Amino acid sequence: MCGIVGVTGSKRVLAILTSGMARLEYRGYDSAGIACTEIESGGHQGAASLLWRKRTCVGTNSVARLTAELGDKELGDGNCCQLAGIGHVRWATHGRPDIDNAHPHFDCNSEIAVVHNGIVENYESIKSQLVDEGHKFTSETDSEVIAHLLESFSSSTKEPIKALKALLDVLEGTFAIAVLFKHLPSDIYVVRRVSPLIVGLHNGIGLVASDIPAILGETRQVYSLSDNEIAIVRPDSISIVGEDGEVSDPIFRDIQWSLEEAEKGGFDDFMSKEIAEQPASVADTLRGRITEDGTILLDQENLSKDQLREIDKIFIVACGSSFHAGLVAKYAIEHWARVPVEVDISSEFRYRDPILNSRTLVVGVSQSGETIDTFQALKEARLQGAKVLVITNVVDSSMTRECDAVLYTRAGPELGVAATKTHVAQMAALYLLAIHIAQSKNVLYPEESLEIVNHLRQVPDLMAKTISLQSNIADLVHRLSNQTTGDAQPTGNRCRRFFYLGRNVGYPVALEGALKLKEISYLAAEGYPAGELKHGPIALIEPGVIVVAIATRNRLWSKMLANIEEVKARGATVVIVAGEGDEESIAKADEVILVPRVPHPLLAPMIDVIALQLFAYHFALVMGNDVDRPRNLAKTVTVE
Ligand code: F6R
């Protein structure tokens, strides 16, 4: 979720680093930093090499500030003496955004500089061992252990490849890492597992980046490292060391993308990129928080079992999509943990005089951690003595400073205004919380909770499968858009009315599906609990109305089918979201959106919502709307 750039062999090391980092700011913008090697002034034979770093932490201006602090002369005139450099833009995951936590990180002797993307899952145990051995840490990050491990591994051999191989054996988690060693001033060493990393070579300049846009101005020939490969990047050569120790030359591929296309990773817009990133957002949010035997570990988040055992009432407060994630959690927490849950719109909760005490847990869910309605609601809850937990995607955001505990989602920066990957990551965090409370209170048998956890672990793959079915949804949207329905549709889609219906956990999914359609397609859509329709809104059902029915199997599925019959009988076009192979549901539909079957019905929202995001997305495209910047909306709402 951060960005890495590296360069060696150019007289413009600083300029290439800072312009590459500026292009990666969409990956992270909490802080920025570079480390460079130089030869002592004069550069005479036998001159010693130097390794220095510079870091800034001023939010979205971090790269600009860093560039200014480096000075025009050094950046521009081509007379610099830097041999190689690595740069990083940070999106905080472990450790708040501040200078000490900004990359690059150094070892104890400032002879090794490291930048890192990803999460080192076992950093705590590594760190305590290194501290016992006498290593001095200066940050709260997981990343710093990498510099100290390399120091420890290379102290005897001074051979970077051996040290990096030992590093690969020890580190758990995901990572893309670039390293500078002071005693090898022209070399950059890189290694990756899961997190992407590319290398390139052009006109005697070696290049490294986590993302193509960072180096697209310098080269269009890149090689993507495979998992556990190491690359040695020098000014005139790149060597790849495979997992088996074999050394080979990289086979470069040609990048045809424009810069704008590259920033979007080849997607047409940030929204579709972020929809595609959802399996990773959920996997990263779960990572390191579930043990082999299915125990949820949230002690680090200040949510120990002892603290949770006392809780007898939960309020979830949130706005918009975060509110819908909270509604899903109500079903999961009440079913698994048997604790009563109320879900409130933040702006209502705050002013409605809720009854709270020290046994109440108030959970604020907010992607940004800044939404004023939720922020004020949480402050109020704390004043009244409740325990406050914040679930947010932004480290050190305002809400995290006004609470007792924080559970971070790890979706990375979301640029599309409509929430997608942060919404599913919130659900994943809330499912973890639900199981954790159940385990704390001993409400579930161990084998029951292990089964749920195993189902949860399967979700990212099922999400990926749902996304791969996208072309069917695009075709469906085109069919619906071309449908003629007489008087009810005098001017095309713009006048159509949509109802989204669901029951049980399908209900919040219906609300979220309708919200997405409203936000980016500007179409009138209402989400409703399907059983409630007959108490009024059914009067609006007539030919031309599109009803999107969430009919994946949950405990009220057969009742859902009966509600579908009611709207069909009144002439609505019914689009059913159904599990693959569910012929009974499919038989009721005018149109079907098939999704993979989910092993546990309470987990279905994470899959079903993707289908509805894609449905809204393709309608927005048909309507010619800007999906990333919908009219009238702001990404973070800091006014009441
Ligand atoms: C919907 C959307 C908004 C936000 C809401 C809360 O796509 O993005 O409804 O969910 O404004 O924002 P956070 O989660 O930042 O508190």
CATH architecture designation of the largest domain: 4-Layer Sandwich
Q: Roughly how many Å is the radius of gyration? A: 26 Å
Tell me the name of the CATH class of the largest domain.
Alpha Beta
- CATH topology of the largest domain: the name is Glutamine Phosphoribosylpyrophosphate, subunit 1, domain 1
- Fraction in beta strands: 15-25%
Features of this protein?
3 domains; 25 strands; binds fructose -6-phosphate; alpha/beta; globular; Glutamine Phosphoribosylpyrophosphate, subunit 1, domain 1; Rossmann fold; 640 residues; 20 helices
Could you describe the 3D structure shown?
This protein has 640 residues and is an alpha/beta fold. It has three domains: 3-255, 4-Layer Sandwich (Glutamine Phosphoribosylpyrophosphate, subunit 1, domain 1), CATH 3.60.20; 270-464, Glucose-6-phosphate isomerase like protein, domain 1 (Rossmann fold, 3-Layer(aba) Sandwich), CATH 3.40.50.10490; 469-622, Glucose-6-phosphate isomerase like protein, domain 1 (Rossmann fold), CATH 3.40.50. The protein contains 20 helices and 25 strands. α17 links the parallel β21 (497-502) and β22. It is globular. Residues 486-491 have low confidence and may be disordered. The structure holds fructose -6-phosphate (F6R). Residues 319-322, 366-368, 371, 374, 418-419, 515, 519, 636-637 line the site of fructose -6-phosphate.
